[in-house]
Amino acid sequence: MFLDEDIKITPLGAGNEVGRSCIHIAYKETSILLDCGVHPAYTGLSSLPFIDKIDLSKVSAILITHFHLDHAGGLPFFTEKTNFRGKVYATHPTKVILKYLLNDYIRIINASSDTDFYTERDLKSCIDKIIPIDYHQEIDIHKFKITPLNAGHVLGAAMFILEINKTKILYTGDFSREEDRHLKSAELPSFPLNILITESTYGVQCHLPRCDREQRFTSTIHNTIKRNGKVLLPVFALGRAQELLLILEEYWNNTPSLQYIPIYYASALAKKCLTVYQTYIHMMNDKIKIQALTKNPFIFKHIHNLKGIEHYEDKGPCVMMASPGMLQSGLSRELFEMWCEDSNNHTIIPGYCVQGTLAKEILTEPEEIDSIKGSKLKLRMGVSYISFSAHVDFIQNAEFIEHCSPQHLFLVHGEFTEMSRLKSALAHRAAQRNVEMQIYTPKNCETTAIQITGERTVKIVGEVKEESIIEGIIIASGRGEVRIVKRGGESIENKRINMLENKITEITEITETNQITNEMKDKPTNEISENKSINLKDKISEIKVIQRVIITTNINNSVIKSTLLDFFSNSYVKDKNIWIGDIKVNLEEESIILEWNSNYINDVMGSTVGRVIEDVSKKITCCLGKEEALIKVLRNYFYVEQNDGDILCQGVRICLRNGSFSVENGEERIREKVRGIVERVGFIYE
Question: 29, 135, 341, 623: which has the highest count of C-beta atoms within 10 A?
């Protein structure tokens, strides 16, 4: 039996498996989904999480950690094919990249099925519903406060902190504690956690040092080319692919004898993918930012984009990077079947492989494999596993867990055997450190309830006499505090007190949540008894709650101000704040702050004002025109002038024709830098 005060955690996917990540968290009437992926070993409805186990109409929000399909591939189905009506949040890069990946995914998956899993129209509608967020931006979802942190796994990957009544939960998604060639490592929370939900992909395995992996990777490729062979690198179009491209580009630059050998990045998304990475360099590590000052690190000299197999000419040795990463279908599968019977060729698996996929199968070195068409093929080519997977290994995961110091640890996103070994190893380490920590390895659809404990406190006006104690309420004498304890708590005299349920209900309705402190307004003397002492039984109505709502928006505050003054007839400006009846709207801070004394009328009005502000934010996506935005960005780098409708930057002329910019004249070095800025601004306005 679960109590209302319990937080209930249920894996709907990724419970004792890798794939279809989806964690359901429920507290009272609020429920949130963490990710909604698909399983790479299955197709269609069978690839989805077990969503029939919950009522999706009651889910308030879905938080997407990153763009990989096993964490986000089911999102269009959730938003367009079910009764889910909540909000969806993801970081800016995740939203942009997910659009491209899902478009490619549905094209492949629908081609192999009689019915569409979801359509391009579904996808567009889904992407439009995603609310982009920044790292460390606070989001309020009913009783939860949500904060995303950098996860390091791929560009834009986030971990989510969920805070409810001072109970802190962290869901890591996939994360990496190792800084690589372009991404920062995952952040460490700055406070202890009550509950940690973390991946266990690699269990107790430990990665080789990065330099050793890179040396083995490049030497395997070099040796294959020496014997006139071809190298296949199955990867997902975005993520580890960009890291491997940086390694290959550097190795080819330093090895002249290889520079006549082509490297192909075979993906219909290749050009778009690299444009996205160029756009978000500011979110990467310092090493890549420094490189970007002189040269765009994602414009490659030795790597060629290949849209499809029909554009490939077999003229000898080459390195081919193709998706998907687990060889389950698509271009990487076609190339593998073409090359697998030649012993001169080699496949390098650079990331984690899920059970049931061809990539996992060939690591067992079978003599033959089944082709897509059902025929048998001899496996004569070499196969190596060199992991560049951006997941924590055992040491990194254990150190992260010990830093977070959770009371409750949930292991997800791991195969049963590896997860069981990890649980035993972590329990052993905790025992050695004399630390109490409950470790859970829930199966799919298995619910675990964690009880929230805590106090409810309110501040009151005036003196409180000890004899005015109500059953179930403790007076902290001399401090002007009323402290409510749970059943069986002790009074200040350490005596047992009986709780009256109706009193607790009354206080709960006023304080709303377990551990919120509500400040009371000072009241005139004539509104309190003459001796200023309060009898709580008679004066409980004197307690007031001040509601405070913080809204983050990318809209200029002048637009919000104008809209509110036009929309509400009872609005006026006082002391730089807008007042709408009793609702104060503070536009002076970075975020918009609404504040009011809580009662039925004010709560309804406050909710209406907040909804108007959110609606304006959705409808007005940017206050700057394309040309104005470009000028604003250019002025961060150059002296900018305008002449006859054109923009001049230190001798370089930018012409606007039919909605597009062209870059002309000027010194080549400056022209290239200006062209890069123009392309990025243009990409934003596509």
Answer: 135
CA distances to 2, 5, 305 from 167, in Å: 18, 12, 49
Selected residue with higher pLDDT from 666 and 382: 382
- Whole-angstrom distance, CA of residue 125 vs CA of residue 656: 31
For the stretch 213-216, contacts whose Cβ atoms lie closer than 8 Å and that sit 24 or more positions apart, written own/partner, are: 213/386, 213/387, 213/388, 214/247, 216/384, 216/386
DSSP string, 329-395: SHHHHHHHHHHTT-TT-EEEE-S---TTSHHHHHTT--SEEE-TTS-EEE--SEEEE-----S--HH
Percentage of residues of the chain with pLDDT beyond 70: 82
Please pick, among 391, 403, 413, 428, the residue that the annotation labels catalytic.
391
Name residue, tokens 């765009």. Answer: 296
Task: Specify whether 282 is catalytic.
Answer: no
Residue 173: the pLDDT is: 96
pLDDT (0 to 100) of residue 200: 95
pTM strictly above 0.70: no
Residue 471 above 70 pLDDT? no
* Phi–psi pair at 255, nearest 5 degrees: -130, 85
Judged against a pLDDT cut of 60, whether residue 474 lies above it is answered with no
Residues in the chain, overall count: 686
Tokens linked to 239: 């993520």
HSE (side-chain half, CA atoms, 13 Å) at 428: 7
Give the residue from 72, 214, 196 showing the smallest Cα distance to 129.
Answer: 72
